[in-house]
Amino acid sequence: MRTVAAAMNIPSVPVSPEDMWLAEKQGAAARNPDCQLPHLFCYPAQSNFSGTRYPLSWVRGVQSGQTCPVSVPGQWFVLLDAASYVSTSPLDLSAHQADFIPLSFYKIFGFPTGLGALLVHNRMSPLLRKTYFGGGTAASYLAGEDFYIPRQSVAERFEDGTISFLDVIALKHGFDALERLTGGMENIKQHTFTLAQYTYTALSSLQYPNGAPVVRIYRDSEFSSPEVQGPIINFNVLDDKGNIIGYSQVEKMASLYNIQVRTGCFCNTGACQRHLGISDEMVKKHLQAGHVCGDDVDLIDGQPTGSVRISFGYMSTLEDAQAFLKFIIATRLRPSSSQPVPQATPGEVGATPAENEAQNTLPATLDRQSPSPREDTPTASRVCNDLPTAMRLHPRLPEATRTLQTPLEKAAGVPDGDLGPHVITNIFLYPIKSCAAFEVSKWPVGSQGLLYDRSWMVVNHNGICLSQKQEPRLCLIQPFIDLQQRIMVIKAKGMEPIEVPLEENGERAQICQSKVCTDRVNTYDCGDKVSSWLSKCLGRPCHLIKQSSDFERNAKRKHGKGQSAGTTATLSLVNEAQYLLINRSSILELQQQLAASDENGKEELFPMKDLILRFRANIITNGTSAFEEEKWDEISIGSLHFQVLGPCHRCQMICIDQQTGQRNQDVFQKLSESRERKVNFGVYLMHTSLDLSSPRFLSVGSQVLPVLKENAECHDLSASEKQQNVIS
Q1: What is the CA radius of gyration of the chain?
Q2: How many angstroms separate the CA atoms of 310 and 313, rounded?
Q3: 676 falls in which pLDDT band (50, 70, 90)?
Q4: Which of 381, 337, 332 is closest to 357 using CA atoms?
Q5: Which residue has better confidence, 680 or 1?
Q6: Coil/strand/helix, residue 194
Q7: Residue 641: strand, helix, or coil
Q8: pLDDT tens profile 626-668
Q9: Which long-range contacts (CB under 8 A, 24 or more apart) does 270-273 make?
Q10: 3-class DSSP string for 317-353
């Protein structure tokens, strides 16, 4: 609206809820009856951010001059944005005669998408002007002369072209079904508000053992009635010290419980700034820091850039509300369960491993006589804190005093009494993106990373890449590469092995375009035979495609120190960088934290091999301390030199056991707790310089020589001195 007004040199003034509440108290201002200058007041009947319902009485109050948003002479008209409001509440237009009312049928029914309406009061027809006309809106016009007569009907005059008549036909069926299922919009209003009130009461009472609240709810009401509050709850999750946990992390954890939440600012920057205390300058600084609307940059300098929102509709149930509360309790107030999360089918919202235990701590079920929860809502005395302090697994002891191994070191095969220099202990490549790892002891290096690493990927019938997020069973498909025979053999349980050539047949290859992380890549289909094999294995239509050998996908990251400004690293079908490195000491620390939180008392809840495979790294090294790799600036392995690009931000894929395909949220949750709310693990590497005039290899047992970030410019140091810099 502001942009439309500005194009016509008409000023616009932002008005806050506080301004309107004050204007209501002040009453009518002096009016000049002769001044007919038109003004338009636009406001939402319900905030899509917080669910606050603003007074519908403002419509008549502003039109009559009893409530003045801005003290200027003239005649006021009102645009009432009812899109969020009418999705769960009736709106009586005979009582609240706004001049313009936009609404969304999609928000009411969930179908058809993209269909809405603008209701225009007939009295506004003379004031409306069109600057152009399209098909079907003219009563008569000439092509060779500026002659145009619009249709008389407002609707016909403004509906250019062919309307979505097939979608419009569906609306009557939608209203009929809604009436048949619910008994009408008044019932929906009461039902959804009761669910929101119940959830708000329970959520706002949750506390850590130290009395700190678990969430911070952004609201303008006490959820006292549906007249002032809609079925929306907006909040941020806090830790026991009062620090905000980023919305991106909460969203990832919720998805593990089959709960989908909305996060960010919800296209409502004004409400977001107002409730979160974000100034205009902070918004501009967030943009400079790289944050844009819709991304997952949820915290900048410890301050939130957005929040989490849940909302209830006519199809929502009490079980849905309880499932959400179970999720909050299980992730914030209970120790992690060792049981895997079941593979829920659609409708099994909130299925969790701790369901039975969490049920005992949930607020009581609602009944008709008791619209709010009973007094057995979880409190500090009823729940336990699942945020143990992160411990250093390997204290840096003098060599003479460190003689005995810990059980975890023995399990990991760490040499007795000596961690030694940094050495490669494992090498993995992943020929097919999101499928199982292929472990090698020595492997050639190519211009894009390890040769054939993520050169293939599985796509659905629409050509969209499948990952373990959508299809966890991909991890059970095992590719093996035979460099001698120039083939890749693919195996899976219950399936006969199938062979795929390593290189395309130039004459037969069918080139197609695909996408990897918004990048368009040229690929070719590997044929019907392997497509049928994969489709049978996964039980869904899919294809195997390979990146074309003559296609170069350039990395978005800046060139490394050893590269000239004109040099750009090339990538295979990886998400971020050519290599991913993890440190065994980091794995060991995580393993100990997981074992400490195992309430079942198992000695080895997560074997070392299982944890290593979950992180899907290319290079595994032993180390002297956990997460020291994040302090490295460069590393050298023999004649190969790499730039450390930064940490790997983890997603829900680390919750998938790579040997069974089963989900377990403990790893993600523990990392989230111990890594200060950012789930980083491992570092990305990129070649700084690569001479492929002769074959280059990575081998298990090769020494890794890291350079700390603060020592990155000391290129004249010998290798032994560089190593000493890190160890010291």
Answers
A1: 31
A2: 10
A3: low
A4: 337
A5: 680
A6: helix
A7: strand
A8: 899 999 999 999 889 999 999 998 888 898 999 999 888 888 8
A9: 270/14, 270/16, 271/47, 271/49, 271/50, 272/49, 272/306, 272/307
A10: CHHHHHHHHHHHHHHHCCCCCCCCECCCCCCCCCCCC
As annotated, the active-site residues are: 267
Q: Which amino acid is at 47?
A: S
The answer to whether residues 563 and 688 touch, using CB atoms and an 8 Å cutoff, is: yes
- Distance CA(275)–CA(218), nearest Å, equals 6
| Cis amide bond preceding 112, omega within 30 | yes
Instruction: Tell me whether strands 704-708 and 449-450 are parallel, antiparallel or unpaired.
Output: unpaired
Collapse the DSSP code of 29 into the 3-class scheme (helix H, G, I; strand E, B; otherwise coil) and give the result: coil
Confidence of residue 517 (pLDDT cuts 50, 70, 90): confident
- Quick: pLDDT tens for 54-103: 999 999 999 998 888 888 888 899 999 999 999 999 999 999 999 999 99
pLDDT at 717 over 70: no
Identify which has the larger pLDDT, 670 or 530. 530
The distance in angstroms from the start CA to the end CA of the chain is: 62
Query: Which CA distances in Å does 663 have to 165, 294, 370, 654, 716?
Result: 44, 27, 38, 9, 48
d(CA 435, CA 442): 20
Please give the DSSP secondary-structure letter assigned to residue 387. Answer: -
One-letter-per-residue 3-state SS of 226-266: CCCECCEEEEEEECCCCCEECHHHHHHHHHHCCCCCEEECC
For residues 215 and 205, the answer to whether their CB atoms sit within 8 Å is no
Bridging pattern class, strands 75-81 and 38-44? parallel
Is the CB of residue 648 less than 8 Å from the CB of residue 683? Answer: yes
Phi/psi for 287 (5° steps) reads -65, -40
3-state secondary structure of 87: helix
- The Cα 256–Cα 262 span in angstroms is 15
Average pLDDT over residues 563-574: 69
Residue 256 Cα distances to 340, 474, 607, 652, angstroms: 11, 18, 22, 7
615 and 582 in contact (C-beta within 8 Å)? Answer: yes
Of 367, 386, 366, 384, the residue nearest 202 (C-alpha): 366
Lowest mean pLDDT among 38-42, 124-128, 229-233, 722-726: 722-726
Q: How far apart are CA 415 and CA 406, in angstroms?
A: 11
| Crossing angle (nearest 10°) for helices 185-205 and 165-182 | 70
Element at 460 (helix H, strand E)? strand 456-460
Q: Which residues contact 7 (CB under 8 A, 6 or more apart)?
A: none
